[in-house]
From TrEMBL:
One of its GO terms (molecular function) is galactoside 2-alpha-L-fucosyltransferase activity. One of its GO terms (cellular component) is membrane. One of its GO terms (biological process) is cell wall biogenesis. Keywords: Cell wall biogenesis/degradation, Glycoprotein, Glycosyltransferase, Transferase. Belongs to the glycosyltransferase 37 family. The lineage of its organism: Eukaryota, Cryptophyceae, Pyrenomonadales, Geminigeraceae, Guillardia. This is Uncharacterized protein. The keyword ATP-binding does not apply.
């Protein structure tokens, strides 16, 4: 077992352990070999893509699923999660949501000078981009692979199952975390990452004055993917 995983178990509270790991990496108090980052990003593509691929960053819900997937990756590989939200500063996710447990909105200067690799689900022919990333997340080894200081993760859906199914990470998933299913990942890690600023409720109420609320229903026919799982849905 990887000895550092013991750091995640502080009197049975893995979150306290990870919060200390995260802060040590962000603040620079950890030694250089342990200053490693998992950066969720959806920056502009600098590689060619096929016509079937998309360079967009998906909708809000899919972005959040991808960020939670990146958070699980960060915990299992003992990296500090950074969220590099696309768009201008006024629309940054940190203006609306925050985590009381970790600073996921550290600036680029914290990590941009370090060596990096990229796992981008948008790159590839047709669906081979996200299929290739899924295979990678299911099989990579924490000791032999992903040695770069920074792993950039452009995950635009839920990839929880792929990480949970990786036999090289099985001990970490259970040790302290006790995460076994995608629902547990989404429910527990999502609540850790995203808390609304008090001003958000006031802003929503202010914008809603005189407005008409509408309820929409989205129906998808064909292959549907949700939290990293796929099934056929027939009308």
């Amino acid at each position: 077992m990887r000895i550092e995983w013991q750091d995640l178990d502080v009197n049975g509270d893995w979150l306290s352990g990870y919060s200390k790991i995260h802060e040590g990496i962000i603040s620079g108090t950890f030694p250089a070999h342990r200053r490693r980052f998992a950066v969720w990003t959806c920056s502009e593509l600098n590689v060619p893509v096929s016509p079937e691929s998309t360079a967009r960053c998906a909708g809000l819900a899919n972005r959040l699923l991808g960020i939670i997937s990146a958070f699980l990756y960060a915990i299992l590989t003992e990296r500090a999660l950074i969220i590099e939200w696309p768009g201008d500063e006024a629309s940054h996710l940190a203006n609306f949501l925050y985590s009381p447990y970790l600073r996921w909105n550290a600036t680029r200067s914290t990590w941009s000078h370090l060596d990096a690799i990229s796992l981008d689900t948008r790159v590839g022919s047709g669906r081979s981009g996200w299929l290739g990333v899924r295979r990678e997340l299911r099989t990579f080894h924490w000791l032999n692979d992903h040695k770069a200081s920074v792993v950039k993760l452009t995950l635009l859906e839920g990839y929880f199952d792929d990480l949970l199914q990786n036999p090289n990470l099985a001990a970490a998933c259970l040790y302290g975390l006790n995460l076994k299913t995608s629902d547990e990942v989404l429910g527990r890690l999502g609540r850790i990452l995203f808390h609304a600023h008090n001003s958000l409720d006031d802003d929503i109420m202010a914008r809603s004055v005189g407005s008409t609320f509408r309820l929409g229903v989205q129906i998808r026919i064909g292959m549907v993917r949700q939290t990293g799982r796929a099934w056929n849905q027939r009308s």
